[in-house]
Amino acid sequence: MLSVENIHTYYGRSHVLQGVSLAVNKGETVALLGRNGVGKTTTIKSIIGFTPPRDGRVQLNNVDITGKPAYEIARLGVGLAPQGRDIFPTLTVRENMTLAARGAAKGGWTFERILHTFPSLAQRLDHRGRKLSGGEQQMLAIGRALMTNPDLLLLDEPSEGLAPLIVAEIGRIISRLRDEGLSILFVEQNLAMALGIADRVYVMSKGQIVFNGTPEDLNGREDVMHQYLGV
After folding, report:
1. Rounded alpha-carbon distances, angstroms, from residue 29 to 51, 79, 211
2. More exposed terminus of the chain, fewer Cβ within 10 Å: N or C?
3. What is the pLDDT of residue 105?
4. Exposed, middle or buried, 181 (CB in 10 Å: 0-12/13-18/19+)?
């Protein structure tokens, strides 16, 4: 589904990603873990086209999307719920979601199906984005991404700033999307949540991948957990 091959991404002269390679198979849920500031969000931005890599290659369904503008990458089947959610604060829940609607016949993520997945949004359709709680805004960000009917869903810090009960609910929602066969790459600081959901995990440090394996593999590597995740 997704192949990231030896990408190097810069902010000005700052060399942030230094040869990052990772993959997401069809129907697989993959977590990207690491401390703050190691390049996880930059990896997401490099895939979606916000900060295109200077070197290396990104492929989606065997199509080279390296350097393409973000709107073209989205049209090719990548949905994004970004860090900070970035919903439209003055638009209602209904307007935020319908604005993103595309390709329902292809993927089957209709407005009604998403409301069934996020029942709390169904009760707030006419509420403006700024009136929602943090958890509701995160659900809206994921729902809006699903409205594009993506082949690959990117989630950047979906549990960030949320209360434990809401984090658990977001985890259940991601698990449900995984069980429905959606391909997912997500960045997450909540280690327990990530390891409970992911099929495979990558760990980053200083712009490089330092570990790749299953959650069980990572749990067996106390050195990696301590050195790179602070556990």
Report:
1. 23, 14, 16
2. C
3. 45
4. exposed
- The answer to whether the CB of 2 falls within 8 A of the CB of 44 is no
| Nearest by Cα to 121 from 108, 109, 138, 105 | 138
Q: How many residues does the chain have?
A: 231
Rounded Cα–Cα distance for residues 93 and 56 (Å):
38
Q: Which of the following CATH numbers is that of domain 1-77+188-231: 3.40.1190.20, 3.40.190.10, 3.40.50.300, 3.40.50.1000? A: 3.40.50.300
CB 118 within 8 A of CB 146: no
First to last CA, the chain: 31
Which residues of the chain fall short of a pLDDT of 50?
105
**CB burial of residue 174 (10 Å; 0-12, 13-18, 19+):** buried
Q: What are residue 152's phi and psi, to 5 degrees?
A: -130, 130
Strand-by-strand arrangement of the 55-60 sheet? 14-24, 2-11, 55-60, 63-64
Classify 166 in phi/psi space as left (phi over 0), alpha (psi -120 to 50) or beta: alpha
- Rounded to two decimals, the pTM is 0.93
C-alpha distances out from residue 162 to 45, 131, 135, 158, 189, Å: 22, 16, 6, 9, 12
